[in-house]
Amino acid sequence: MQTTWILAADSSRARIFEVHGQKDHLREIHDFANPAGRGNTQQIESDRRGRFFATPEGTHGEGDTYQPRVEAVEHETDLFSKEVSDFLDQACNEHRYDKLCLIAYPKFLGMMRKNMSKATQQLVEDEVPKDISWKDTREIEDYVRNKLH
């Protein structure tokens, strides 16, 4: 019997479900969280130097370390997609699943494609650019059964 993994993800959460055959129920096997993906960068940026900072000579100069808020969140989201992709790649190498279905927020789906290994990409059966990661397991199962089969 083939094992299918289903990834439901966005920039702040990625859930992996497993199903054996079409009549089996989804079973959640992993839940990744990325609080930085929600767009609150206060903690991400809290250690950066301010607009003006003291130079070694004791004078104040204009800082060049400013990083726009969007870039910080996007960087954290890319790191998160890499973490999830690495997990999927390792599981692929261990033959823990035979097929993979990706259901993710469109931008995050693109990041996942970029970060997954070729071997993992070859197991992708379906890709759906939609965010359903916040739904409960039953709703995700219903979505998968109605939209993908």
Structural commentary:
The chain has helices at 42-45, 69-93, 106-115, 118-122, 137-148, and strands at residues 3-9, 13-20, 27-33, 52-54, 60-62, 99-104, 124-129. By secondary structure, it is of the alpha/beta class. The model is unreliable at 41-53 (pLDDT under 50).
What does the secondary structure layout of this molecule look like, with pairings?
Layout: E1 3-9, E2 13-20, E3 27-33, H1 42-45, E4 52-54, E5 60-62, H2 69-93, E6 99-104, H3 106-115, H4 118-122, E7 124-129, H5 137-148
Parallel strand pairs: 1-6, 6-7
Antiparallel strand pairs: 1-2, 2-3, 4-5
Helix pairs in contact: 2-3
Helix content: 25-40%
Task: Give a short account of the largest sheet.
Answer: 5 strands, mixed
* Rg measurement, Å: 19 Å
Mean pLDDT: 85
Shape: globular
Structural class: alpha/beta
The CATH topology name reads Nucleotidyltransferase, domain 5
The run of helices and strands is EEEHEEHEHHEH
- What count of structural domains? 1
Termini separation comes to 17 Å
